[in-house]
C-alpha cells in the first residue's frame, strides 16, 4: 500500500471526487437520503481528501464554527488509518483557524475512534438519517 496523504480540497474543482466517496459511503452503503447528504454548508466548508497514490479514498469537512462532518472512507481502505490521517489534517486546520473547540455528530459505532482522538461524548444517543449518533466535543 502506498502512503496515505491528505490535502485540503476545493469544493468546485474536487467536487466529483468528494461526491463519489460520500455517495458510496453515505448514500449507497448507509442509505442516507441524498437530500440529507448534500447541504448548503458544503460550499463554505473546508473539505479534505485522502489519497492512496492518485486515487481519492476518503473525505471530511470542517465548518467555520468548528463542526467536523462527512468523515468517510471507502470500504476497501477502512482499518488502514485513513480516518486517522483525515482527522489529523482536520484538527490541524481547526487549530490553524484558532478554533478552541471542535465538535461532531458521531455514529455510535465510531465513538471509540473519536474518543481515541480526544473527543468526549456530550449528548444522549439520537437518530440522524435513521442511524444512531451522539454529539462529541474536543477542546484544544
TrEMBL record:
Keyword set includes Acyltransferase: yes
Taxonomic superkingdom: Bacteria
Pfam family membership, one: Acetyltransf_10
Transmembrane spans: none
Record bears the keyword ATP-binding: no
Keywords: Acyltransferase, Transferase
InterPro entries for this protein: Acyl_CoA_acyltransferase, Bact_Acetyltransf, GNAT_dom
Coiled coil region boundaries: none
All copies of domain N-acetyltransferase, residue ranges: 4-140
Protein name per UniProt: GNAT family N-acetyltransferase
Lineage per the UniProt record: Bacteria, Pseudomonadati, Pseudomonadota, Gammaproteobacteria, Pseudomonadales
